[in-house]
Amino acid sequence: MSARRKSGNRLLPKEVRERLQAVVVDANAYGQVGPDLSSLAELAKELSTIGIQVWVPEPVAWEWADHLANQWAVARAAVREAAPLHKAGLLPVLHFEDHYKHRDAVVDAFLDRLKAIPYVEVVSLSGESALEGLRDQVLQRPPAKKKSEVKTGGSDSAWLRTVLAKVGGAADALLFLSSDGDIKRAYEAWGHPPPLLCSVRDIRGSLFEYLPASVEDEWLIAESLVGRMPIDLRASTSEIDRAIIDSVVGLTAALRYHPDDEGITAAHLTRLTALAGLSRVKRKRADLDHEDPSGPDTRIFVADVFFLAEADAVRTVQNSLSGEVTTTGTQSGAGLLVRAAMTLTIRDKAIETMRSDGEAVVFATHRRFSDSDEAWYEVAQALSAVPGLRMPDEWGEYAGEGDQQIRVAGRDQTLELHWSRSEWGALSVRIDGEEATVSCEYDGTAWWGGKDGMDMEPPYYLFAEVPMDYALNSEWELPAWIITQLIKHRDQPDA
Prior knowledge:
By secondary structure, the chain is an alpha+beta fold. It has 15 helices and 22 strands. The strands form five sheets. Strands 8, 9, 10, 11, 12, 13, 14 and 15 form an eight-stranded mixed beta sheet that branches. α3 (58-81) packs across α5 (103-115) and α6 runs antiparallel to α7. The two termini are 57 Å apart.
């Protein structure tokens, strides 16, 4: 298969992607002024997962810094010119944060931020490449050219030579985020095949076999799974249900987490009680390229799926005198969280096939925390597994007490939140007249030694009051309840 040299929005052939070492960012990749650093950071992190680096050549970084310094000067002047309007009461006071005394300070600050982005490398020019770039400009060798009789192109030539040298001259090891024809001219002049060029908008579709799923797709998966809950793993004959959990790790350790559970030597999952969340949900790219609009709506997804679960455990006792080990029977254990990596095929809004991608990991949920901040961080992490739920920026221990309403993306439904600062904080969520609460509590019995004593174990824990029988008392009851409630009331309009 021949490689398409302009990637467009279609997945590049596997052999082309396997040769790539780096994505090189040109100055025009994000428009005429400068980059969106948060977008660049996110892209670099995603590309690192498939072994592709992100390089910003040093002259590109300088050009961005120069443009941004010019914008800073324009903005400062505009704020100063608006002063009469402020004094006349025609405009509110505009606070121009003058952190920088001069444009060089802007340049330095931007370069420092760029270099601090994880997985992004600012590639320094080599002396040899800089010299050859200057020769190209002076002698007008491609990609150098004239603009209004001014010789230009030395900078582009220099950084192109540098990144090519960095991959040992393997021109097909680089993909450029650029719309610049000068890269094509340089490759042609230097005897390379046409370069791979791509836009920021299209790069994910060009390099990833799986793309982030839409929030609507996440809810489609959630509804399909909730419709199968609870699942009795001992009795179910459904191949789909059995495929959810092929094998597990960490189950015995999770059951031993509580001191009363010492002596457990073996265990197995018996029941999945509820869907607690989804994360890293992606849709297979190939089916987007080749789907038949006239055929059934079939989609392939991969996701990390969280389930609340129960298990049976075998307890044994060893005789201290004889050393004989005896089995004392089995006990049921609740309060477990299972994280399973799964591939799901959904056809016409129903699960057609499902398989586990490796071992599922089991965690204990009745954990203790060293402080309330740690406990509320875990609550926030659990809530992030609810599709489309974005908690307000200000909530939690440092927010003021009060109420707030938020819409859930992908659904025409509202959550009512109430944060209470009483004791160590409590979060209540109301959906269609029903309410669930998670609070942080302090166990005073963990303290030993009087005034000069100390906590002998982490003293904080989470207590859940949820109108469903999950038996967890942990942060994961709340997202499980939210998902179930939103699906339960999906056809009912907001009150």
